[in-house]
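Any chance you could type out some protein's one-letter sequence along with its C-alpha cells so I can compare the two?
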Amino acid sequence: PAMEYAALGEAAAEKLCLYRQDPGGWRGCRRTGEVAVSCRPSAEFAGSVYRGEGIVPASPQMVWECIKPVAGGLRTKWDQNVKNFEVIEAVNDTVSVCRTTTPSAFMRIISPREFVDVVLIKQYEDGTMLSAATNVEHPLCPPQPDFVRGFNYPCGCFCIPLPGEPDRTQLLTFFQTDLGGYLPQTVVDSFFPASIAGFYSNLTKAVKTLKV
C-alpha cells in the first residue's frame, strides 16, 4: 500500500491547491489581528471546510520549522491542539503515515481525539511549502480505547513567501475535520474558528521565541 498512501497524499495536495484557487462560496466566520477565518460546506463530508489566512512575522523557513509534520518537531510544543504526533510509517522522503492525538478541548466538552493521516510534504518552484493530509487506516494503528477516532479530510498548510519581504510569510491553512463522537453541531461550529484563531496566535508567539 505504499503506492496507495503516496497517491492519497498527492490527491489531498491537489484538493488543497483547488481550494486555494477557488474564491467562491467562502463566508467569513472569524477575524482577529492575525487571521481571517472563512468557511463553506465541505464536499467531502457533512461538515464544513475552514480556511485561515494570515501573515506570520517570520521567514518561511522559520514558519515551516514550527509547523512541519515531523516526529519530535516543534508543533507539539506550541500548538494547543496537538498533544502528541508520531510517524507510524515513513512511506518515502515526502510521504508518511502519522498519528496525532489531541487533548480535551472546549471546557472538556470535546474529549481527547486521535487522527491517523497520510501526510505529504511538497515544495513549489516559488518557494511555497505545503503540508497536506487526509485520513487513512493503518494496520499498526487500530483505534485506541481512550480516544475518539476523528477523521481529517484534505487539509493542510501553505507557507507562501512574500516577494521582497523575507521576514514575513503568508500562511494559508485549510481545516476539514470530522471530530467523530456525538458532538452538538453548535459546539463544532464554535470550536473550529476559535481553534484556528488560536493556532495563528500561538504560532506567532512561537516564531517570536525562535527569533530570540
The chain has a mean pLDDT of 95. The CA atoms of residues 69 and 131 lie 7 Å apart.
